[in-house]
Structure formats: structure tokens, C-alpha cells
Specification:
By secondary structure, the protein is of the alpha+beta class. Helix 2 crosses helix 5, helix 6 packs antiparallel against helix 11 and helix 8 runs parallel beside helix 11. It has eleven helices and eleven strands. The protein starts with a strand and ends with a helix. It is about 50% helix and about 15% strand. The radius of gyration is 23 Å and the shape is globular.
Length: about 350
């Protein structure tokens, strides 16, 4: 088996404290030379449960591998991936990164070193931070100063707690056995990396919608002129995600209803009869409700102009509006389908438990 740690995330070593309908999470960071006994006293003084040392599995696939939280030393932690091959390890790691980015707005921090750092042997719960650094397999162009840079990198990243990690792992578990859904999620992640279209409702209501209404046509044109290639690329990547969901690249307008019907039969959705709700009144579509067939046909027309014909003049202007809207359409459809796949996975697991019990 191969062991990897994810670079760019800093997971909390301990479970969050759940109260009422919410939770409180306190991340103490690295131990910075403290003993385990001293750190344990700090946890006790704050009324926080002591972390469980060693590996705690958050998701396991019988053929691909597992995603775990590994707590070591004086309660430091990292996300670990255990798999039989490098290819499967990246399948798990890339899936988790895309799930956390697209559904929770928590992308990993970009670092100089690799996203997955392979360990030369099984990590130990009693090791120090420096012991962990020494376990990491050096890259092909490794220099003497890289260990120092890596030590600093491992102390920085996107903080996530157990609840967020579990939610991301649930998405990974529901998508691994459906390659085209995974491809759709990857395309959405790439689109969001080009143009960050993730925002919570409170940010939209209190900030974004008000700022957009204050923008003049002249300033909107400036945004377009500065970001045209990024807008086009982000839009096309999200549309490729729609193609993955429908199971056919380069489909024609007359095929959309049939492809949606096939999707409905496979994943028990209802895109043929239901409508998509747009949550963004300030966007240029000015539609609140869309038939899925009509909305995808509208995006197909834009895709053909931007991608197939190079959008020379351009005859169709793709701006932040269209990018955000297609990203949220793709996220919404993926969420519906993943809800079904996760329910099926739970039913299958319960049947297995009953038959073996």
C-alpha cells in the first residue's frame, strides 16, 4: 500500500463541539514543541474532547482506497490517503479537492510542492512534525533547501473541521463509481478556479447583489475586456460538465430532451418536467425559473459561439453572469444526482449489514 498526505489543508485534530443546531470548532494549530501532556491540559481547560491518536477513517472504497485523518505527536493532524497505486490515490485526492471546492467553498491553499505528498513508510502516532517532514518522498528536482520550504508549507493551508471533511468524503463516496459524474465535478472545479463563482446566500444578498447594481455599463464592459479569455474558458469548462452529466459530448439542441429523459431514468431525477430556479436577480438572464431543456439549449448556443466558432467579433458576449449561472446549474444538478447515489449507497450498505448480521 502507498501512503500520501494532502498538502494545502490543515484539518482540526479534534471533533467540533456540537451544541443545539450548530457547533464550535477551535483549532490550536501545530504543537510548536509542546508535550502531549501539556497540550492535553490545554484541551481540558477549554472543555474540548481529546483527539484520538492515529488513523481515523472517514471514507473507504474496497477497490480504490481510503481517506483518513491521522493525528500524531502532541495532537497535530493531516489528511491521509491510503491506496494501492498513485493513480488511485490521486483519484481520491482530486475528488475530495473538487468536492470541498465546489460544494463547500473550501479549496486547498496552493503551495509550491505537490498536492499529494507520498510518505516513504507508514506514519507513527508518536512522531514529531520534523519526523513527518523526513517521511515525505522527495520530488525529482529536490534541493537541500526544499525541506525548509516544505516545513513552512505544512504549517499553512485551508482549515477544515471533521464535519466539513465528512461531508466532502460523503460526496466522494457517492461519485467514485460514476466516472462521468466525477468528470463533471472536475470540470466544475476547474471553472471555479478560473472564475470563483461560489458564494453563500448571505454574501449575495448583503454584498454582491448591491455592488453589481451600482456598476455602470462602462465598468461592466471594462470587466469583460480584462477577463474575456477567462470568462470564455470558465464557461466552456462548466458546459463540458453539463455534457458529462448528459453522457454525450457535442450534442445538438434536438437531443437535449432525450438526454434529460435518460438522466431522469438513471438517477431518478425529474429534469424533464421540473424547472431550475435562478437565485441571482442581478444577472443578465433576468429569468427566475427555467425549463432545463430551454436553459441548456441557451447555453449550447453560447458554447457554439465561444468554443466551436472562436467567438471572433464576438457575436455573443460571455461575462461573469453567464459563468456564475452555468456553474450553479451544474452544481445544482450534481447535488440532485449525488443525493440519489448517496441514498443508494446507504441502502446497499444496510442490506450488506443485515445479511452478514
Amino acid at each position: 500500500m502507498k501512503y500520501f498526505m494532502i498538502n494545502g489543508y490543515i484539518p482540526s485534530a479534534h471533533p467540533p463541539k456540537i451544541h443545539g443546531h450548530g457547533y464550535t470548532d477551535t483549532n490550536f494549530g501545530r504543537s510548536q514543541g509542546k508535550t502531549r501532556q501539556a497540550r492535553a491540559r490545554t484541551y481540558k481547560e477549554c472543555g474540548i474532547e481529546l483527539p484520538q491518536l492515529g488513523e481515523t477513517i472517514f471514507m473507504q472504497h474496497p477497490k480504490i482506497g481510503r481517506i483518513s485523518l491521522f493525528v500524531y505527536g502532541a495532537y497535530d493532524a493531516f489528511i491521509m490517503i491510503v491506496s494501492s497505486s498513485q493513480r488511485n490515490a490521486y483519484l481520491l485526492g482530486n475528488s475530495l479537492r473538487a468536492a470541498m471546492t465546489c460544494f463547500h467553498g473550501n479549496p486547498p491553499m496552493e503551495h509550491t510542492n505537490r498536492y499529494l505528498l507520498e510518505l516513504t513508510k507508514i506514519p507513527d502516532k508518536d512522531m514529531s512534525h520534523q519526523d513527518l517532514v523526513s517521511l515525505i518522498d522527495p520530488g525529482p528536482l529536490w534541493h537541500s533547501w526544499d525541506n525548509l520550504l516544505l516545513d513552512l508549507e505544512l504549517d499553512s493551508g485551508t482549515c477544515i473541521n471533521h464535519i466539513q471533511l465528512k461531508a466532502g468524503c460523503n460526496i466522494v463516496a457517492g461519485i467514485l463509481d460514476h466516472s462521468r459524474l466525477l468528470d463533471a465535478l472536475m470540470h466544475l472545479e476547474y471553472s471555479r478556479n478560473l472564475i470563483w463563482g461560489f458564494m453563500v446566500g448571505s454574501y449575495y444578498v448583503c454584498h454582491y447583489s448591491r455592488d453589481r447594481k451600482d456598476l455602470s455599463r462602462y465598468k461592466k464592459e471594462r470587466l469583460y475586456l480584462e477577463n474575456r479569455c477567462r470568462y470564455d474558458s470558465a464557461f466552456v469548462s462548466a458546459f463540458r460538465g453539463i455534457e458529462c452529466l448528459l453522457g454525450k459530448p457535442y450534442f445538438k439542441k434536438g437531443e437535449i430532451s432525450f438526454l434529460l429523459a435518460d438522466l431522469d431514468r438513471e438517477f431518478h431525477t425529474d429534469y424533464g418536467n421540473s424547472r431550475h430556479k435562478s437565485f441571482f436577480e442581478v444577472f443578465s438572464s433576468h429569468h427566475r425559473w427555467w425549463k432545463y431543456e430551454d436553459l441548456i439549449a441557451y447555453y449550447l448556443k453560447l458554447r457554439n459561439a465561444v468554443s466551436a466558432h472562436g467567438n471572433p467579433s464576438p457575436p455573443h458576449i460571455v461575462m461573469e453572469d453567464q459563468v456564475f449561472e452555468i456553474q450553479y446549474l451544474l452544481q445544482s444538478m450534481l447535488g440532485d444526482i449525488l443525493s440519489y447515489t448517496c441514498k443508494q449507497r446507504i441502502k446497499s450498505r444496510n442490506r450488506t449489514t443485515c445479511s452478514t448480521g
